[in-house]
Structure formats: C-alpha cells, structure tokens
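Researcher: Batch entry, complex prediction.
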Amino acid sequence: MRILLIEDEIKVANFIERGLKEEYYVVDVAKDGENGIYLAEVNVYDLIILDIMLPGKDGVSVCRELRNKKIDVPILMLTAKDRVQDKVLGLDAGADDYLTKPFAFEELLARVRALLRRKNKRTSPVLKVADLELNQLTHKVNRAGKEIMLTMKEYNLLEYLMLNANHIVTRTMISEHVWNESFDSFTNVIDVYINYLRSKIDKGFGTELIHTIRGIGYILKE
Amino acid sequence: MKINSIRFKIRVLFIGILGIILVIYSTYLYFSLYFTLYDEIDDELYSKAEEIAKAIDLFTNLNETHSGDFLSKVKKVIILEEFPDPDEINPLQQQWLQKVDKLNLKDDYIDLLTIKGESLVRSNNLKRSLFFLNSTMVMDLKEGVPVYKNLKLNKLSIRAVSFPYFFQESELYIIQVGTSLKPTLHILKNRLIHILASIPIILLLSSLFGKVFVTRLLRPVFDITRTASKITNDNLSARVKNDHADEEMKYLVSAFNDMISRLESSFNAISDFSSQVAHELKTPLTIIKGESDIALRKERAKEEYQKAIKTILEETERMLKVIEGLLMLTKLDFPSKAFNFEQFNLIELLTEIYEQSRLLAVHKGIHVDINVSQEPLFISGDRLHLRRLFLNLIDNSIKYTDRNGNIRIVATKKDQKTVVSISDTGIGIAKEDLSKIFDRFFHIDRTGKNAVPSTGLGLSIAKSIVDIHNGFIEVTSKIGEGSTFTVSLPSI
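Model: Structure tokens for the complex:
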C-alpha cells in the first residue's frame, strides 16, 4: 500500500512517515502543494494524506486540483483548524476524511485502514486466497494454519498480489504500489522478491499460488 | 404603546404643547372678543346718553322757561309721554322720535338722577334705580367721566352707564342708560362652546397624525433594533438599509453600519489571530503527541527513545517561546503598566548589547562591529524593552547569516532623531515578504537548509516596542546580500 504524505512541517511529516512505515506502508513525502500534485500525477497512490496549512498552495486548493485532474485516490485531510466550516470546506473540496491536529496516531492509522478498505471494497482486514491468509491489522501471514515470517517488502508484495488475486499484475503495477519514489525500475528487484516469496509461501505446501505470466507479470491464484 | 416608549413620550409632549398653545390662543381670542363686545356696548351706551342729553338741551332751549318746567320737558324726552296726537307733534319731537327708533331706546332702561342719587324721571320699564353711585363714582362724574357697570335687573344681565349731564353748563344731573346684555352673552357663549368643542377634536386628530408621523420618524430605530438583534459573533454581515430621508437618521444608520463594519473587521482579525495562535500551538503539540504515540507503540532501542524525547523537548521549547511572545505582545498592548520610561544615553546601551552579541555571534563565526557617534545620544525610553528590541534584531541577523558573515551596529543623530541601524550579510528577505515581516505569526516559506525555527512573533514584538516609543522601524533587504533594520527614536 503506497501512501503520499503532503506536509510542510518537517517534524510532523517525519513522525507520520516513520509510523506508517512501521505499519508496512510505502510512504512518499511532499513538502508543499506543488510537489504533492506532481508526485500524485506521476505515481499511483492508494491514499493521500494532505495537510491544509501549506506554504504557497494550500491544502484545499491542492485537493481541488487533484480532483480536477481526475485523481480519485482517497484523501485524508490533516489540519489544526477545527471549526465546522473548515471541515465542510475540506470535505467539499473532495477530501474523503478529516482529522484535526493534534491527533492520536492510532486514530490516523484506523482512518487510513478504513479509507483503504473502502477503496478496495472490502469489510474485513483479513485477505484470503485458498489456504493462504494475510491479516492487514496484525500483519501476520498463515498458510494452512502455519505462520510464515516475512520481511517488510515481502509483506508489501504479497499484500498487493493478494489484493489483486486472480488478476494479472505487471511489474510496473508492482513497482508503483509496493515501492516508493526512490525505486529504480531498471533492476530485477521485483523478480528477486517474487522468488523470496515463492520460497516462503509455495515451497512445501503442495499447490503453487504464485504464477509467472511470461513477458507480462505475475498472478496469484489457486 | 408602552408608557416609557419614545413614541408615547413624543406624542404626549406634542399633544401637551399643542393643547397649551390652543388653550392660550383660544383664551386670548375669547377675551379679545369679550372686551371688543363690551367696548362696543359701552360706546353705544355713551352715545345714547349723549343723544339723550342733547335732546334734553334742545327741548329745554326751545321753550325758555324756569326749571319747574324742566322735568316735564325731560319726561317728554325719556318717557316719550305727552304726545297727544301725531298732528300736534312739533318737528323737534318728530325728529327725536325717529332718533329713539334708530337708537332702539325703547327697550333700554333710562333714568335721570340728581347728583345725590334721587331719581327725577325714569323710563316706564324701570321700577327702581339701575345702580347706586359710590363716592369715587361721584368724583369721576363730577369731573365729567362716565361710569360703567354690569348689573342684574329682574334676573336680566344689564350693562349700564352713568353719564354726567351739566344742565345749562352749571347744574349736574346724571343720565343712566342700561341695555340688555343678552345678545352679547349669547355670542360669547356660542364662541366658548365652539372653542371647548374644537380643542379636543383638534388634539385627537393631531394625536392620530402624530402617531403616524412619529412611527415613520422612528422607523430607522426599529430597523436598527431588528438588525442589531440579528447580529451575533458568528454573523456580523447584517447592515441596516440606509434609505431614510431624515438627515439625522441617515447619520445614525450610517454610524451604526460603520460600527458594525469596524466590529466585523476586528472580530475577523481576532478570529484570524486566534486561529493562527491555535495553529502555532497545535503544530508542536501534534509533534509531541505523535512522537510519544509512536515511541510507545512497541519496544524500541534506547537511541530511538532519546531521539523522540529530544524532539519532544525541542517542541516544548518552541511552544514556550510562542506563549512567551504572546504574553509579551499582550503586555505591549497595555504599555502603561509594562513600561518604565527614563532618560538615558543610548550609546551605553548599544555598547552593552554589542558586547553581548559578540559572544552570541562568535559561535557561528560571525563578526560583529559597532560604529556610534562620540557624543552621547540621549533618548527617553524603557531600557529593558529597548534592550529586548535590539537583541531581537541582532538575534535575527545571527540566525539568518552564514558563517564568516558580518553584522554592523550603527547609531547616529539625524534631524532630531536617533537612528540605529543593524545590518547583516545574511540571506536577505524577498521583496514580496518585506511588507509582511512585522505581522504576527508571519513565517517566510523556507524549506531545506534555510529552514530556521521561529515563532513568527519576534519582529512583531520589535515593532510594538518601537511604536510605544513613538519611533519608526523599517527594513531594506536584498536576497543573497543581506538585510538592514533601521530604528528611529525621537531624541531629547
């Protein structure tokens, strides 16, 4: 799950980024509205966290511009303003949710999860394909009742494959959703991580779940 | 309509004044009529008595006889008796009879008396004397002045005159003539009824017109009341429509609207300011809360805790600075309490500040020098606050000047003003920001390596201090070359 954080206060951006990364999210940070819009246009994000008080272009204008550019990623607004009309203004500009500063970090995480669930049209935090289970809340992965230990990147990759179970995902799609801005797409990192996953998930469980579609990408199915 | 409403009071006052004027005017009219009518009657009575006297003279002159015949002649004049038949009437008598008709003497009461009050001859309709004469009346009569009197005769109101008649210019008789006041009293009574009836009607009508008029006049007041009751601190946009014709009301309404406008702008300023304060305080709070939340989510290495606590401490410091700055600004808004003005030599203060700032700047490798006039520069001001002002400015210069830069303090006297300038070779301020840097909570958008933590209050405090000293602060700057802050204070 890849998240774009648009926040000018370095320290605020810093702790949100760290906290989200601990929760297995892939995070890019933009320090102003212009940069945020640029990143949202060139990359594919699952969620945007947007601060309202930004230097130059403020959050509400950024939100409007993103929606005008047909970028319909869920947007969670952050602001120190807590008057009703500020909230209304933000939501009317196209935001999906609103959180006032200071906030409890657990609440931010819960709202992020809720927005992502709604985006993927699911109600449960548990992803399931055949006997493979992934819990997005606890980040635990089981196959046939046996717990499998994954690194953060492996987890991100598996989560993305499971979210798109029975659909082909290309390497580009994987790079867009699992890696952040600093990813170099000319390496074979994706293939390497697919191999790691295969050895942990498919090896010794009989039926293979991860299949290679030659020349296109991968598919996770029974 | 309530008794203590302006509408009621204006109406009462209006009707009261109108009523008093009407009563006074009507009284005047009534009495002037009264006196006019009485004067007319008196004139008439006088001329009647005069005619009678003339007739007596004529009748007595005609037959030159002694006084024994005098009474019978008079009787001919007064009672009109002894006119046996019309053929024997001489021309004089004929003439007199015509005159009696003309003067309408037949209905009047006529009496001829001696000066002692004894009646000699009286007309047939008179059974007793008309009125008795007291001594003053007699004195008047003796001097030839007629005396008038109102009296009642058989329940009839009579106006009578006593007329002095000198028979053959020697013997004084009195001719009394009385006439009924009935027609006069009738006129006066009618007039009184008209007046008494018309006053309430006029007052009632004017009260009704007054009500309409006063209500129209006070309409702007009701408009203002309605508008004022609509105004709350959430909604100050309501205004009273100013389409009233009355000049005073126009002024009132526009003064009211202006007041609301001023209130609105100051409310907005307060609201903006408090949302800025909220933002300035909430940002460090967000960081403190976020860092704490994340640190406590799971077991971490010692270094991570240390880092989190360091960040929390820094943000606490930042909040403290903002709060201190705000308290300072609040104090500066009520200068009389916080300020202690005295006369002193500014050069001494600047030299102290120079020594202090050298120590601050040496850590960053910045060179500070001072160039002040040899003569003392006396000003009147608060030492502590002026120290804060100059230290603030130098502190800023140090903050935004790179290693090996220069800061220069210059103080001179110029046109009755003491001018202190603090220049640096720092990063400078963009043109579009120059006008805003003295605003509260103004931060220059700087990211990356130029990001310097600031409360956004320092220069605002500096400006307040200069303002309280009746001084002037300005800034010139060029990006990449440095800034110069110039403070002018009145010299003494």
